[in-house]
Amino acid sequence: MSNHAPAPYPGTGTPEGKARREWPLWEVFIRGQHGMSHRHVGSLHAPDAELAMRNARDVYTRRHEGVSIWVVPSAQITASAPSEKGPMFDPADSKTYRHPTFFDIPDDVGAM
Amino acid sequence: MYAQMIKSEATQDDPEKLAAFQARIDRGEKIEPKDWMPEGYRKTLIRQIGQHAHSEIVGQLPEGNWVTRAPTLERKAILLAKVQDEAGHGLYLYCAAETLGVSRDEMTEMLLDGRMKYSSIFNYPTLTWADMGAVGWLVDGAAIMNQVPLQRTSYGPYARAMVRICKEESFHQRQGFDVMMKMCRGTDAQKRMAQDALNRFWFPSLMMFGPSDKDSKHSAQSMAWKIKMNTNDELRQKFVDQTVPQAEYLGLTVPDPDLRWNEETGHYDFTEPDWSEFMDVLQGNGPCNRDRLEARNKAWDDGAWVREGLMAHAEKRRAARVAAE
């Protein structure tokens, strides 16, 4: 597991002689319609959660794209690493019996 | 096209890794932020997406110029919405670039001190209300030509930003054409104004696609990486073919005496823009280069106390919350 935090990216950090105090990064999730899950739509910078919410409204819902917004500090998200893709997801490949189509049910049985 | 003359970076990586990377791109897979990527791919994308983002932000200035002078309240509201969209587009793109390991403030500083560029088109002035029509119709029209194929670009965050942007960009072009239609159906003075706007924005719009293919040194690598989807000349031709009939519909004359339909090729023949003017504008000598950078620098400097104050406030409140727990 590795952290999805945006900083420190290689090449970022403080340039010579200039202390940079950037607003932290937030990930924005929006529920598009009632009954749907929240979905990641992008990120933005804001000093705190309240302003992250306001900015998310202005940046990501100018055309009624949502009925609910979540903002999460990017640094708080833990993401799976691409290098672990194999061990993480390959085991499912051999378990085709987890899908209903694995089982042949005769047509005579009717809907199932 | 908001990114012009993007120099692609040479890559010195393990040939085996490079081949595997290229194979992923050739299969149409998206490259995501944490995936391995060649240094050259990463740096070229930062430059391209950054330049694109800066163009959206600087692009607010020529139109912002007319917000207080829009002819009706409705036009003013529309123009405000468009300018706000441009800010949003800039933000989507900065976020995409940030996933490559550069911060937004870092990119802003590179714009402000001239290390990064923005599109040449925004160094031309907007002199009359008809220019708001011409900018929406031609400039946003040219941008769409470039951005629609970029929705399929290989870098996931860039492609996703493009999808959002393209949805909104269509409103921009249509509102511009709507302004032009109104002017062209108006008084003689209004028609002259519309023609004058077309005269001034035609060639600068053609320049947006970047230099002619024969002078475009950086295309091959970027096209292999699918961060450039069409050549400059392909897109320029497509733009001319689409725009000329629209100008005819408006009853306007494209300011190119050599423009004519070519039966054989099925395309319009047209005069290339003056590339020495293009290079000159890129060098910083366009009519508005200095104004644009001054305005951006002023906004950044004047806003410093707000950025710092909000950060201090957030930290104080966080400390108070921690103390209360």
Task: Please tell me about this protein's structure.
The complex is a heterodimer of chains A (112) and B (325). By secondary structure, chain A is an alpha+beta fold. In chain A, 15% of the residues lie in helices and 22% in strands. Chain A has 2 helices and 5 strands. Chain A has helices at residues 49-60, 85-89; strands spanning 2-3, 25-31, 38-45, 68-73, 78-79. In chain A, strand 2 (25-31) and strand 3 form a beta hairpin. Chain A is elongated and about 65 Å long. By secondary structure, chain B is an all-alpha fold. Chain B is 66% helix and 2% strand. Chain B is built from 13 helices and 2 strands; from the N terminus they run ααααααααααββααα. A two-stranded antiparallel ribbon of chain B has the order 1-2. In chain B, strand 1 (260-262) and strand 2 form a beta hairpin. The interface between A and B is medium-sized, with 28 and 32 residues.
Write the layout of secondary structure elements.
The complex is a heterodimer of chains A (112) and B (325).
Chain A: E1 2-3, E2 25-31, E3 38-45, H1 49-60, E4 68-73, E5 78-79, H2 85-89
Antiparallel strand pairs in A: 1-5, 2-3, 2-4
Chain B: H1 15-26, H2 39-58, H3 60-64, H4 73-98, H5 104-112, H6 130-150, H7 156-184, H8 188-207, H9 219-224, H10 232-250, E1 260-262, E2 267-269, H11 275-285, H12 289-302, H13 304-324
Antiparallel strand pairs in B: 1-2
What can be said about this structure in brief?
Chain A is of the alpha+beta class and 112 residues long.
How would you write the strand order of the largest sheet of chain B?
1-2
What kind of sheet is the major sheet of chain B?
A: 2 strands, antiparallel
* Rg over CA atoms of chain A: 22 Å
Strand order within the widest sheet of chain A?
A: 3-2-4
How many distinct helices of chain A? 2
What is the share of helical residues of chain B?
55-70%
Largest protein interface, residues of each chain: A-B, 28 and 32 residues
- Tally of strands of chain A: 5
What is the general shape of chain A?
elongated
Structural class of chain A: alpha+beta
User: How far apart lie the N and C ends of chain A?
Assistant: 40 Å
Listing every helix as H and every strand as E from the N terminus to the C terminus, the arrangement of chain A reads: EEEHEEH
* Strand residues, percent of chain B: under 5%
